[in-house]
Amino acid sequence: MATGLEKDSDATTQARLLWQLFRVIGKLGKPDSGLMDLVDKRTKTNPSFDVLAVRAQELYERKTAAEFYDAKNDSAVTTLPVELRREVLLNTRIATTKDAQGLFYALAKLYDGQDIFYRAALNIACGTDPARRDAILADFDKHFPEWNDKVADLVWELRPKSMLPKMDKLLADEKVTATQKARIVDILAASDDVAAGKTMLGLLKGDAAPEVKARAIDNLKLFLPTKWNALAKSEELKAAVAGLLNDPKTTITGLQLISAANYAAAIDDVIRTAGNGTLPTNVREEAILTLGRIKDIKAVDALTALIAPKYPFALASIRALGEQLPSGQKSTPAADKAMQTLQQVVLQSDFAQEWRTTALTALSGNRGGTGWLLKLKEDGKLPEALSAQAGRLLRNSPFQGERNKALLLFPAPGKMDIAKLPPLSELAKRKGNAEIGKAILAKSLTNEVQCLKCHTVRGQGGQIGPDLSMIGKKGSRENLFESILYPSKAIADQYLNWKLDTEDGQSITGLIVQETPTTITLRDANGKDYQVPVKGTDKKKSPQSLMADNLVAGFSEEDLVDVVEYLSTLQTASLTPDSWHVAGPFAVAENPVSPDKEFDPAANFATKSGKQTWRLLRVTAGNYADLAAFHGEAGANSASFAHRTIESPVDQDATISLGTDDGGVLWVNGQEAFKFEGTRAAAPAQNEVKVKLKKGTNTLLLKVSNGSNPHGFFLTVSSDQELKLK
Questions:
Q1: From the centroid of its chain, how far is CA 302?
Q2: pLDDT digits over 421-454, tens only?
């Protein structure tokens, strides 16, 4: 190895040889002086060599970066390549607090706003000792007096205490953009201090931009039940709710806040809102959803009264009753009443099929409801029209014992015996029909296989398993066959299946989507989330994938080959925005938004619903932007504008797949890229538009013109290089 180091081999090879020498010699003691001389001789020549050289010096001589570069200040390191600067930061963790401060701030100011590893290295440089971190970060605000996206990144990563008192002032600063303020809200939300929660409540009462209020609501939903639970009965919450409900523009925000806090004191206001026929559709639907989240018998009684033939909100009421069901065995009078109502809906033959299947789905996510459905099947009383759907849901039940019973009562209809298939290497050689495979996947949303219930392909499908939009680039055909036939053979860490055994006797399986100090949220194969307490819950990894090994039995052998053929063609990144800024509704002929002008989140418009700013619309679970629900009755005979910005790492070609109800015009970076005039129901990928994206920020502006409700749109962007939402 030493001989190899003396030769003119490339720097990367030399670095690897050097590191192996240090590892071997390290077992014997300190390296000899000759090897250290060799290190000194080769430093400052190439980052790939120097990074490992710095590590070796630290490991055997405990040299800090300042000593290694003979620098008492930062001048010797700020001009180093970024790879070496990251390594210097990692090394700085062993420096004294005094030596670390100068290096830290000199290198922190060189953060480029993109390099997450550089940011992490800055964090490591501060060390883990609280007193050391506080000393190094004490002057952070003096070194970074101006607020921008880079500083926001650093504050998010480092949490300097000197910056936290300034957050409230930044939220009130007109120079700080709405997007930056939304980020500040997230930074504040990391604090356990209940004062941060009070700040969120204050934002909801003020005139903050829609995305700022949306982030405040999201954080309140997350933390009011946990670290900010002291606010649940506070005067601040009471005042915030009252103020929001009294203003027609903020009624929905008030209802969301009531949901987040489970604020039963406002239940009468919510019931009145749900039954007020003069209010927009989306407001009444939000009120019904809120009733589903207030765990109170009064809420259940109100929802039950709303389930009647020809009543437009009956389906929403059934869904809300499903929210009242506990995931475990413990129950309440409210949950018991909700269960009884949902059981009656299932058995009511003159109710719409969609109502009955919605009630069935809710019951299958509850242990008691699952047991009731299994008993119906055993007794021959399960309605035949619901049997197939019940079988699909119950065979994927998160409750282990009940799932085993369902497999016997509802045997899956099999087309293919996996054991009789040829070897994977032979299957991989077979040529299928990609178009047929695409159609098979599209149908899987409703049939036994249900691939797109879990996976997304170019904006279509569910969000349980990984996005398949680039799967053809990530694996060979043989890998694709193996992943479908033997899903448990290799499972990515983020999709590990967990088994939770709770104190009250539950045994549920699924993906862990969120953990807090007090609760675990688990998502099952049907897409339902369960929240269980950490205390008293035994958590174990399951060797089985959430995707059942026998799911593919619903395919024929030809189906399987066609699906793999289609999957192998999926080789482009896909991005579907999860929310949009929406202006409107306007009269159809009005065009108050100019595609060639810079987006102004504070702009005010005269709409059919009165004065409005840009408002935040979140897409549904099926990635549909539902403008009809968003606007209510004012959405009829209207036009709306939806705006979003995306980031591209390079100049590149892209394809925008969209569907609009009814007409649509799309501008990309101010230039018209698509126009459709006509009447139709929206569907994913009705049109595909070829566009050119520039490196950096790109703007999307979509105008949707509507005749009568419903209306909305789907939109997904595909490209070779992965895109990000800005």
A1: 32
A2: 778 787 778 887 777 777 777 666 555 556 656 6
State the SS3 of 309-324. CCCCCHHHHHHHHHHC
Q: Is the confidence at residue 313, as pLDDT, over 70?
A: yes
Percent of the chain with pLDDT over 70: 81
**435 CB-near residues (< 8 Å, 6+ apart):** 566
Q: What is the DSSP letter of 186?
A: H
End-to-end CA distance of the chain: 49
Q: How far apart are CA 599 and CA 177, in angstroms?
A: 11
Phi-psi region of 721 (alpha: psi -120 to 50; beta: other; left: phi over 0): beta
Which has the closest alpha carbon to 498: 543, 453, 451? Answer: 543
Cα(514)–Cα(520) distance, integer angstroms: 6
The span from the CA of 590 to the CA of 605, in Å, is 11
Token duo for residue 382: 């399960």
How sure is the predictor about 58, in pLDDT bands with cuts at 50, 70 and 90? low
Average pLDDT for residues 293-318, to the nearest whole number? 90
Q: What's the mean per-residue pLDDT of the chain?
A: 81
Nearest Cα residue to 323 out of 373, 259, 394: 259
The percent of residues above 90 in pLDDT, for the chain, comes to 21
**Cβ-contact 316, 344 below 8 angstroms:** no
Task: Map residue 390 onto helix, strand or coil.
Answer: helix
Distance CA 65, CA 185 (A): 36
Cβ-Cβ contacts under 8 Å for 148 (sequence gap 6 or more): 180
Determine the 3-state secondary structure of 665 from DSSP.
Answer: strand
- Edge-to-edge strands, sheet with 519-523: 529-533, 519-523, 507-515, 497-501, 538-542
Q: Is pLDDT at 345 greater than 80 in this prediction?
A: yes
Angstrom distance (rounded) from CA 566 to CA 385: 33
Of the listed ranges 123-132, 227-236, 245-254, 530-539, the least confidently predicted one is: 530-539
Query: Are 29 and 20 spatial neighbours (Cβ–Cβ below 8 Å)?
Result: no
Q: Are 53 and 39 in contact (CB under 8 A)?
A: yes
Here the tokens at position 317 are 């009421």
Phi, psi of 456 (to 5 degrees): -110, 135
Name, in order, each residue with C-beta under 8 angstroms of 555's C-beta and a sequence gap of 6 or more. 415, 416, 440, 449, 563
Supply 372's token pair: 């009731």
Query: Phi, psi (5° rounding) for residue 312?
Result: -65, -15
Q: Please, which residues have CB within 8 angstroms of residue 312's CB and are 6 or more apart in sequence?
A: 281
| DSSP classification of residue 93 | T
Round to whole Å and give the CA distance between 488 and 495: 11
- pLDDT at residue number 450: 61
Q: What is the DSSP track for 699-713? A: EEEEEEEESSS--EE
CB of 593 within 8 A of CB of 264?
no
CA 73/CA 3 separation, integer angstroms: 36
pLDDT tens by residue, 218-234: 888 888 888 888 888 88
| 3-state secondary structure at position 333 | helix
Max distance between CA atoms of the chain, in angstroms, equals 90
Instruction: Read off the tokens for 119.
Output: 């940011």
Here the contacts of 438-445 (C-beta below 8 Å, separation 24 or greater) are 438/566, 440/555, 440/559, 440/562, 440/563, 440/566, 441/563, 441/566
Distances from the Cα of 43 to the Cα of 49, 88, 271, 375, 595, angstroms: 7, 13, 73, 75, 54
Residue 45: is its pLDDT beyond 60? no
Tokens standing for residue 488: 């448990």
pTM of the entire predicted model: 0.63
- 3-state DSSP assignment of residue 365: coil
Handedness of CA 376, 377, 378, 379 (dihedral sign): positive
Whether 55 contacts 88, CB under 8 Å? no
